[in-house]
Structures
1.
Amino acid sequence: MIGADVSRHHQNFLQVVHSYYQLTKPRIIPLLLITTAGSMWIAAEGRVDPKLLVVTLVGGTFAAAAAQTVNCIYDRDIDYAMERTRHRPIPSGRVQSHHALIFAIALAAISFSLLAVFANLLAALLAMSGIVFYVAIYTHFLKRHTPQNIVIGGAAGAIPALVGWAAVTGSLSWTAWTIFAIVFLWTPPHFWALALMIREDYAKVGVPMLPVVAGDETTAQQIWFYTLILIPATFLLIYPLQSCGLLYGAIALILGSIFVRKAWLLWQNPTCKIQARSLFLYSILYMMLLCAGMVVDSLPFTHQVANALASSLNTIISTILISR
């Protein structure tokens, strides 16, 4: 049995809880939730129902945790082969695969129930589709068979934005799909930067990540191209959709400029793991701050300040024109 030679026994209940908590890969989930929150705030025009927000984020957390748990079950063989992941709960023997599967099913059921009862059926079904896409399409069909795994699989990570929008409105719109597209386009630069850092691990277990198949230079070039597509896409929320305002635009411009610079530096030195790490870490900060910008821009107070500034500016311009 995989990991039998390093099997560990839990000494107390807290260690059991911690092992199951680790199955969910908790460091990944907050990034998914912030895209959900950003989408919800825009959909609600800055007036999100606190109860709905909590329910949607909790439901999204359980859905993401279920997907990650099944991923741990499916990838237990390559996790055991890589030193970086060998001590995860399943390959280390601390959690059995069938117990993890029961845990994942319970998480998915709780997620669906919460979203269906307290939000709406569309949000619940979208959350379940995210689990199915991540497990069946990305983990099973794509991850071990094509270097484009992250490109196509990025849709799974973008679905939480749709869940957030659907939870508020009960439908989907062009704005929701645009936020989905932003996350989708962001995923390849984000994940390929990580893949450049740990290329040897993927090569060791035969996972055809782009750096393994095509090399560092091609990967850095693809990161650059996707970045150039991503940044203009973020401004579609301003025009033509008019879902966000100038504050969001200023934030997107500043963040995007830094992203472009880091992607360019990596392209100039594709074998530099320091540059890859810098881009990877910044990409996380980028998405968090971009979504925070969506939230702040949507607030009624922000609109009031913007309208007051616009009114003052018009008054000043009118005064200058009259004086002439």
2.
Amino acid sequence: MSAPLRRRHLVLAGAAASLALLVAGCTSNQPKDTATQAAQTQAVSDNDAPGKQVTIGFSAPAADHGWMSSITKSAVAEAGKYPDVKLVQAEATNDVNLQISQIESFINDKVDAIVLLPFDGAALTEVATKAMRAGIPVINVDREFSDPNAARVTVLGDNYGMGVSAGKYICDQLGGKTDAKVAEIAGIDSLPLTQDRSKGFKDALATCGLSVSNRVAADFTVQGGEEAAANLLQAAPKLDAIWNHDDDQGVGVMAAIENAGRHEFFMVGGAGSKQVMNQIKADNTVIKATVIYPSTQAADAVRLARLLVQGKAMSDLVEVEVPRKVQLYAPVVTKANVDKYLPTAFES
């Protein structure tokens, strides 16, 4: 065979081999990759499988309103789902000194983890730090400590986000009506959470050229809500929308609205009570929406405490450790999606 012909033969052989490899790749590698991806997508976490026994100390303020009552009930219910979890529940209290002594007892008893919704985050910071130094992970719920090192994990609602969600919903409903009268019924004005909610509301309204025309503050109680709403309605003869920060105080707000015979506006609630969600579903009152402030935070904290002690992570994350902070979303509940949120709503 001549040299030119030999070279041509080698080139053709090489091309054939390359083509064979390419075809093989198209016919065998792709299904293998797809199968691998499918297996990864369908992978099931073993996080719920029974593991090391975990004793969790739980302390929260007194259940003096529906949201706080639901916090405790949901934590207890969540712990009951796991045979490897023992929840040691301290007496609910608004006494800071008593709550501090409860955490001291948990430390002395060498519990595996502590889930703590402090009556006062700053006041409980020191004892929470003591627990952390003793090797007991603390999961801080809702009211933050003054030092982030006092907790391994912090589970929060989104107060600023509540205001944003409420304001955006009102903007969407009023459809560019820049002369609309929008009122706000806040909670306790001295609390940072109330200030955050109001700021988020103001910021969201500004995006559609609206502002708060009338504002009053209540105290998260039925009586306070009724009194504040009565004063508001007297001062504002015409309104287009109201945002009430809290569905517990909203019971009083609705009483004032009915007493005044006012129905020219729509109202957005806050926190997400079952009573308000049922009213939204029935669509026969001025309440057309509410913004969730999850009362499931302590239940989430119980789950996270269990994962921490058992050395597991959150299965839907690539990260192999439980995150340091979990902030829950503040969705708007309307007639269109209310059935999705009713199962986790709290009783006012």
3.
Amino acid sequence: MTKNNLTTSWGAPVGDNQNSMTAGSRGPSLIQDTYLLEKLAHFNRERVPERVVHAKGAGAHGYFEVTNDMSKYTKAKLFNGVGTRTPMFIRFSTVAGELGSADTVRDPRGFAVKFYTEEGNYDLVGNNTPIFFIRDAIKFPDFIHTQKRDPKTHLKNPTAVWDFWSLSPESLHQVTYLMGDRGLPATLRHMNGYGSHTFKWVNAEGEAVWVKYHFIADQGVKNMTAEVATKIAGENPDYHTEDLFNAIENRDFPSWTLHVQIMPFEEANTYRFDPFDVTKVWSHKDYPLIEVGRMVLDRNPENYFAEVEQATFSPGSFVPGIEASPDKMLQGRLFAYADAHRYRVGINHNHLPINRPLTPVHNYQRDGQMRFDGNGGGSVYYEPNSFGGPTEVPEHKQTPFQVTGLAEQVACDSNDHYTQAGDLYRLMSAEERTRLVETIVGAMKPVEKEEIKLRQIQHFYKADPEYGTRVAEGLGLSVPQEVR
């Protein structure tokens, strides 16, 4: 077979398609990595006009109320002062399906929250899983291609899905989560939400900690069987959307209690897992959940397109007291999400009512398609200036952080893809394990190449021998001798 070299769009050979260029193993990512920027920018423009991912979704308005003051850890006002209320909007979604796809498919659910704070909008763009399939944004376009339709058949392609996963062992933890019971939530109201990434909180004294977000459903977590999910998908593909709307309309307001895990800043250098690896979780024994407040959804949208379809979220929409971590996947999302909205909705998407902050906006951005406000009028349009235009606020500069290492395309520090996946498997009850194995076997049977199945079986076996053996038996195969 002739080997074809992978190239950029301008024909230059690609030296590394697995690792983005960072300053040292923990980053941050470098803007000089033009291949990473090309992949992400091109990927954002591959679908018109629906979202390239998370196309099918439902949304609601509500509020967040602080129940435990967090000013010790962050100066972000929405988390300071017991009783502080912040209006918010949330969008739930499936990841891989198109705008008209069924709600009850096995897929992660997007859990994107927009807080309209007195310091600007803060977007927490997470999922109903605390982890993800990959840990470097350079792999995201390829991963999503496997979840979309085959360009030849225009059908979903399980061979592509499992080929990618088997060649990306860091996906094993999330695959185990997705193929388990929580891959099919009973309703949007009966699932947890997670920020997934690690973020940085900074208090008024400039002291920083690392943080992970957990929205725990006050209704409890409930799931549905694969048989029920398939039946509902055929009978009412908008089941989750309808359930959420009706619950709020009937004043059965769903709510979630927000907790955080907090890691002292310096402990990130010594923790037994890379705390910035989004395929890993932090032990609750090491970093217990701390209650922050309660989110309540109490108002349905008046117009789906204006409020849900045109809602735009970006993990880079921070407010003072909340900053990014060196998480490679997060670093890529900081660019990709806002860029996708500039393409899909327009350069002035933040002027739309659903996205517009409650605080006044003062900047020197002008013009662009669909500019529908005063466009700055006749005010000064550059900075620095001598005419009293808006100026920077030095006390809100991001906190400095040390960057060391060679600028190179380098893998994450750890290649332990199996410990936490195995721990998750062993946490499941016997019945849950059986359903997990049956789901995986059913999903892998259509895979065309046996070598892909055997490669994936080795990953399951490395996580837990029973896990791999049961999947192999279900597929009529044996665990490869070299992994035993």
